[in-house]
Amino acid sequence: MRIKCTVSYDGTAYSGFQVQPEKRTVQSEIEAALAKLHKGGRIKITGSGRTDAGVHAKGQVIHFDTPLNLPEEKWPVALNSLLPGDIAVLKAEKTDSGFHARYDARGKEYRYYILRSRQRDPFLRSHAYQYSFPLDIDRMREGAEYLLGTHDFTSFCAAKTEVEDKVRTLTAVEFLEEGSLLVIRFAGNGFLYNMVRILTGTLLETGRGDREPKELREILAKKDRTAAGKTAPGHGLYLWEVFY
Amino acid sequence: MRIKCTVSYDGTAYSGFQVQPEKRTVQSEIEAALAKLHKGGRIKITGSGRTDAGVHAKGQVIHFDTPLNLPEEKWPVALNSLLPGDIAVLKAEKTDSGFHARYDARGKEYRYYILRSRQRDPFLRSHAYQYSFPLDIDRMREGAEYLLGTHDFTSFCAAKTEVEDKVRTLTAVEFLEEGSLLVIRFAGNGFLYNMVRILTGTLLETGRGDREPKELREILAKKDRTAAGKTAPGHGLYLWEVFY
């Protein structure tokens, strides 16, 4: 039986989602919990995509196959009792055996949290990127307009990537202000490696006044990673939702 | 010169505020940073009061004496560069040598964070008390009315305490609902050991239906710790502000 799970995690203590030798990862914690539940039987999980070290998830989606026939509502209870407190299975659904967490994803939403303050906040140190330079959000909004739609996002993709087709569609880039937090909401049909973090870094440079908003269009046209801005740090990023 | 500092900390990694042998405490971290700043000279700090293991602070106040004559605005910068990321000095003020962070405090505000959910939240696991039973906030409000004003709070004080006078004045007990969070705001002229956590535990039992609101008055009258409810856990509690 194939199970689809929605999972939230605080990425602070993890070297990212995907299993890596000698590293603590979200995938290895979930697979360890599944192994206990299956009395040692190894169950491999597949995520909708990787998240990097320190990156958080409010709604990562995974699937796995299991011989156990638990009712849907029992899966979160059983797994959460075996998982560390910084990972939570929010929901489990029985799904048909053709479902695939990565291949079937029609789109994703990410949110990037920026703490606009010169004063550090002990409660957000691993959960928002502290940015002490003043930001002109209108400039960021204007720059973001050029990013919407279907483009080759090569300039906004980490150079070390194996993906060939770098055309993606961004359907939303929104700026939400919550007190001293600026949250940038990105939605699209798919995201390249480090894409949200490079988009954020470049938009921050625009908001700070180091780039003109119309440069965003030029950066896209160059199809060159070095044309874009810095990669914003992982700890401000949240995989918010995966759409199927 | 005497310096008054406002300090915020995430208490998760600490065995409370006050120095204890072999334990990591907020006071020992701040004193270690001050020692570095004073080239090894020991500077003792005095807080407005202790906080227990896991308890957080948004506005703890401390004072210390120093031979250094730094401008006020340099103190937070200098100390924060030496402190771990889960402690932040928010503000420093030069004060007269008679100022005392504990004795001069006229009042305090605490807030207690309750996550009303059956689903755990990886981001709040150390920052709010997850409470899965349904709560009737109106019952809690009604019970809290009996607590307002000047009373002997012996019933709401941990038995192991050295304080003799247990009369305190509660000026506010407010219930703030923020999504699935219930925040109880307590303000008063002073708080006994574990008082906010015992008040919270007893109010939760009232909201859950295990106690009648009017029992709060009877519990006060008994002057007996065993008459009140359970001590709510430390990780939901924030020392919010100290008034002088």
TrEMBL record, chains A, B:
SUPFAM superfamilies documented for this protein: Pseudouridine synthase (SSF55120)
TM ranges: none
Binding site for substrate: 110
GO biological process terms held by the UniProt record: tRNA pseudouridine synthesis
InterPro entries: PsdUridine_synth_cat_dom_sf (IPR020103), PsdUridine_synth_TruA (IPR001406), PsdUridine_synth_TruA_a/b_dom (IPR020097), PsdUridine_synth_TruA_C (IPR020095), TruA/RsuA/RluB/E/F_N (IPR020094)
Alphabetized PANTHER family for the sequence: PSEUDOURIDYLATE SYNTHASE (PTHR11142), TRNA PSEUDOURIDINE SYNTHASE-LIKE 1 (PTHR11142:SF0)
Subunit annotation: Homodimer.
Protein name: tRNA pseudouridine synthase A
Lineage: Bacteria, Bacillati, Bacillota, Bacilli, Bacillales
